[in-house]
Amino acid sequence: MLVIKCPVCGVEGEEGDFHAGGQAHIARPASSNPENISDIEQSDYLFMRHNPKGLHFERWRCDRGCGKWFHAARDTVTLEFKGYYAINELPPVELMEQAKGYWAEHFASAIKSSKRPKS
Q: Cβ of 113: how many Cβ atoms within 10 Å?
């Protein structure tokens, strides 16, 4: 049983109270004209997902409470949720620093920019 907490409305419940939306932070193929996107780029965008062992970033929808989408970081080995954050945000820095493999590469520039001294 997964216990999930919505960061928007604070509702906490079992997996059945939420809807899984798959991998988070997926970028659409960049083009102002959809005809310029190759079939390979389009199929990769629609169907290819990472399934790492360890920390993974996912989208979830709060069905029982507010109905809003949010992101969650979950360990795919233990199924433990490590953190939750808004759909329009990057993960907290401590979660990005724990990421390995694909996710470490994906968040590398965000981690560097978060460590710059603020003026």
A: 9
pTM above 0.85, yes or no: no
Which architecture characterizes domain 3-27+41-89 according to CATH? 2-Layer Sandwich (3.30)
Whether residue 50 contacts residue 102, with contact meaning beta carbons closer than 8 Å, is answered with yes
**What torsion do the CA atoms of 116, 23, 98, 106 make, to the nearest 10 degrees?**
-40
Summarize pLDDT for 10-54 with one digit per residue, the tens. 999 999 999 999 999 988 888 778 888 888 888 888 888 888 899
Q: Residue 62 burial by CB count (10 A; 0-12/13-18/19+): exposed, middle or buried?
A: buried
Tokens 């939420």 belong to which residue? 18
Contacts of 39 (CB under 8 A, 6+ apart): none
The full set of domain ranges for the chain reads 3-27+41-89
